[in-house]
Amino acid sequence: MANLRIPINSNFTSRFVSFLNRSFSTNKALNAQPMTVRDALNSAIDEEMEKDERVFILGEEVAQYDGAYKVSRGLWKKYGDKRVIDTPITEMGFAGIAVGAAMAGLKPVCEFMTFNFSMQAIDHVINSAAKTFYMSAGRVNVPIVFRGPNGAASGVGAQHSQCYGAWYAHCPGLKVISPYTSEDCKGLLKAAIRDPDPVVFLENELLYGVQFPMSDEALSKDFIIPIGKAKIEKPGKHITLVAHSRAVDTCLIAAKELAGQGIEAEVINLRSLRPLDMDAINASVMKTNHLISVEQGWPTCGIGSEVLARIMESEVFFHLDQPAIRITGVDTPMPYAKTLEEAALPRASDVVTAVKKILKA
Amino acid sequence: MFLRQSSLVLRKYLKNTHKLKLFSTSTSTIDYPGAQVIWSGNLSFTNSHSYPPISTYRVLNSKGQITNNSEDPKLSNDVLEKMYKDMVLLNVMDKILYESQRQGRISFYMTNFGEEAAQIGSAAALSIEDLVYGQYREAGVLLWRGFTIADFVNQCYGNVEDKGKGRQMPVHYGSKKLNFVTISSPLTTQMPQAAGAAYALKGKNKVVICYFGEGAASEGDAHAAFNFATTLDCPVIFFCRNNGYAISTPADEQYRGDGIAARGPGYGLNTLRVDGNDVFAVYNATLKAKEFALARNKPVLIEALTYRVSHHSTSDDSSAYRPADEVTHWATHLNPVNRLRLYLEHNSLWNEDKQKEWMKECRKNVLTVFEEGEKKVKPHWNEMFTDVYKDIPDHLKKQMEEMAQHVEQYKDKYPVKNFS
Ligand SMILES: Cc1ncc(C[n+]2csc(CCOP(=O)(O)OP(=O)(O)O)c2C)c(N)n1
Ligand SMILES: [Mg+2]
């Protein structure tokens, strides 16, 4: 519902600063040590490779170069050519090889330089990885993780700035994760690698360098976050904001601003897009009686559409005091120009405006 | 129905199998439909050692001398000078735009250092009516065709004069006027598309040239393009810039076998391999490819062997994966621009004074245009909503109108003067 977006002059720098200075809601976090999303992902892969010899990583530039976004930093040095494999530039090829290796008992972590390039390989992801367990009557499973940056980065134009959350979440057989914090990334990537089914793991390039607090528990090698469970990032009682990936950040900034005006928004970080944690959303909506979904992807058949439809189909619908709405990326390919790019994605000010409109505040 | 038919076929086949015995003669060949047959009693592998490497055609040696006069392309002095001047101008533009990215003035850039001869030589052999599909490292081709420095700069800034309305990343140039199809980010999509365009242009007395890297050649689309171009008889020149690297991946990790050229005969493609740092060799090869493609309506594969002196892009630091000596060697001793300069100097077509003057002119030109480009306003904000569809759908129209109202209401709060 991009038409609910009332942009207020938002200067990029100030937004960026507020993005970094976000306040964290959990108490635990206060004495926790910070870690970047990149390092969290790296340690998840490292720990799982150490633990299970069947785990290996392959993709373009993942070895000596440490990955296009340095997520596999140091792994080639540590594990060598056998388990950190640079591939020729053939997404269709290395996705297929990964599927074959998974069928034969290995546990590949298949890195797409960006999910935009997974389009070259989508037949392997959907027609092979996602469906083989079913088609083989449960005899052949495909334990594989397809991972890489997803969604809008900055200044990379239409063909590099697309959210594939809804695309993959559409497909039975896949599990789809869209993490936000470093803890999410570590716990969920480890869970994904251990999972017996194919998992699509959607990272965000702009979050790679961002530090989040890591609890002691999260630093442990046994730290796992269950797939399919959402997290309440900030509790509140007036309205539920449901988001994934970087849009959670947008919601937290908005929630902070709203708090200053006496509105307590509850921010739900979905973490998993498939399965979708409707229990968490339902419980929240029953408490707040208002719902807005926020995502960077396009509106049509998006994650927000799915959340709203499921509410509509359930008892929880009767708990809504106002129609639930979606805030999404604008329904156009991503513009390159910085200002237009910013305007094409949901901003905290859009969320604030929408919340006030719904709450008639 | 299907079952009955196939059982009929089977019965016929079995009958004929018996007949075959009766009619079998002593001739030594059978026409299998899939390939030509030469019988052999020796069981041995065919591999890259079964025949010598494909030879590499060269005209100018590294001292800038023509080694075999019969191969002199006999270009006019004007053309020779334009070739050289465009190479230098390309270098100067690359240097300035690369640095502007480092200073954060544009978001991204890719330079062409080391591949000037491959670009300029091939561009010069074609006419402007021939259609170009590029990968991204072909700015020299555009420059040759008349894309101005302002055109490059406006695209990189995505300002109001960018023909692409600021919609694409830097270096994703395109020009309808110059028959240069806009660069697309996902690798190798240009290859089957070029074959398709050539198919559509058959009989129009033009060819399509399609540039691609040796890395891009690993994508499945490259296979599809070769196979379709030959089976559909498309007048397309597949021009591989084999520059030894795909970001950090060296060619010997990208593929095995005798380069990209060796794949040509396998697809039934007429193939040429040239020294890509020799502008005359590239020119002659491209001209021959064009003549052949037009005369026979068939595709040609050219592999130009060259070296990517540049970092892959502004997002790359190649010192992490290749020795500095290697780069210096290619940038100095095997530099394609210097090679042409030596040739021109031998033939009294160029000298140090001209060099100084041209360098000065290039720098002044690029810097002026660059400063102007930076100051130009951005495209109108409503361009965000246009061109998604030919006719703007109602929901976008509504949003656009709301935005117009909103911007009007809060114009004091927006930097409206920065937009056209
Ligand atoms: C489908 C796809 N996969 C990966 C990429 C990322 N990528 C961009 S350029 C490049 C290297 C290409 O190398 P090459 O074709 O040799 O061209 P060169 O850069 O050497 O000119 C890669 C991997 C992409 N743009 N598209
Ligand atoms: Mg290359």
Q: What labels would you give this structure?
A:
heterodimer; A: 361 residues; alpha/beta; Rossmann fold; seven-stranded mixed sheet; five-stranded mixed sheet; 14 helices; 36% helix; globular; B: 420 residues; 3 domains; six-stranded parallel sheet; two-stranded antiparallel sheet; 8 strands; binds thiamine diphosphate; binds magnesium ion; EC 1.2.4.1 (chain A); pyruvate (chain A); Transketolase-like_Pyr-bd (chain A)
User: Measured on Cα atoms, how large is the radius of gyration of chain A?
Assistant: 20 Å
Question: What is the share of helical residues of chain A?
Answer: 25-40%
Provide the structure class of chain A. Answer: alpha/beta
Q: What is the average per-residue confidence, as pLDDT of chain A, rounded to a whole number?
A: 91
Helical stretch count of chain A? 14
CATH class of the largest domain in chain A: Alpha Beta
Tally the beta strands of chain B: 8
Helix proportion range of chain B? 40-55%
Helix/strand order of chain B, N-terminal first: HHHEHHEHEHEEEHHEHEHHHH
Structural features, described:
Chain B: Its cofactor is thiamine diphosphate. Chain B: It is found in: Mitochondrion matrix. The complex is a heterodimer of chains A (361) and B (420). Chain A has 361 residues and is of the alpha/beta class. In chain A, helix 4 runs parallel beside helix 5 and helix 10 packs across helix 14. Chain A has 2 domains: 203 residues, Rossmann fold (3-Layer(aba) Sandwich); 131 residues, Rossmann fold (3-Layer(aba) Sandwich). In chain A, helix 8 links the parallel strand 6 and strand 7. Helix content of chain B is 44%, strand content 8%. Chain B contains 14 helices and 8 strands. In chain B, the strands form 2 sheets. Chain B has a 6-stranded parallel beta sheet, with helices on both faces. Chain B has a two-stranded antiparallel ribbon with strand order 5-6. In chain B, helix 2 packs across helix 4, helix 2 packs antiparallel against helix 12 and helix 3 crosses helix 10. The N and C termini of chain B lie far apart (68 Å). Chains A and B meet through helix 4 and helix 13 of A and helix 14 of B. Magnesium ion binds next to strand 5 of chain B.
